[in-house]
Amino acid sequence: MKRKLVNVVLGVMFAFMLTSCYSHTFVIGDGPKTGVVVTAKNNFFLYGLIPGKVSDPQKMAGGAKDYQVTEVHTFLDGLIGSLTFGIYTPTTTKVQK
């Protein structure tokens, strides 16, 4: 029984070590100038196959011509996705003006 519990704990720890946070960064124009950051959540369902509310980086930039967009899958987003078994998988969009 003890050996089985150790194997399960090691398996779970190994699975968490294989996960990672990812990010995509896009620079529009000359990049951010003011350092103002606007953040929004994106909602996806069934492992990201069905989009829900998805943020619009151009609207988040508020008409700025030079900004940076970063799409991030944070630790908290991954935790929520794992707790819901992939039914709900959020991501985060950050726009730096």
Explain what the structure shows.
With 97 residues, the chain is of the alpha+beta class. It has one domain (21-96). Helix content is 32%, strand content 29%. It is built from three helices and six strands. It has helices spanning 2-18, 57-61, 75-83, and strands at residues 23-28, 37-42, 44-45, 50-51, 67-72, 91-96. The chain has a four-stranded antiparallel β-sheet. A two-stranded antiparallel sheet has the order 3-4. Strand 3 (44-45) and strand 4 (50-51) form a beta hairpin. It is elongated and about 60 Å long. The mean pLDDT is 87.
Which key features would you list for this structure?
3 helices; 29% strand; alpha+beta; 97 residues; four-stranded antiparallel sheet
Number of strands: 6
Shape: elongated
**Count, helices:** 3
Number of domains: 1
What are the segments in which pLDDT stays under 50 over at least 5 consecutive residues? none
Calculate the mean pLDDT score and round it.
Answer: 87
Helix-strand category? alpha+beta
Helix content: 25-40%
* Cα radius of gyration in angstroms: 18 Å
Strands of the widest sheet, in order across it, are 1-5-6-2
Q: For the terminal residues, how far apart are their CA atoms?
A: 56 Å
Beta-strand residue percentage:
25-35%
Largest sheet: 4 strands, antiparallel
Q: Would you list the SSEs in sequence order as H and E?
A: HEEEEHEHE
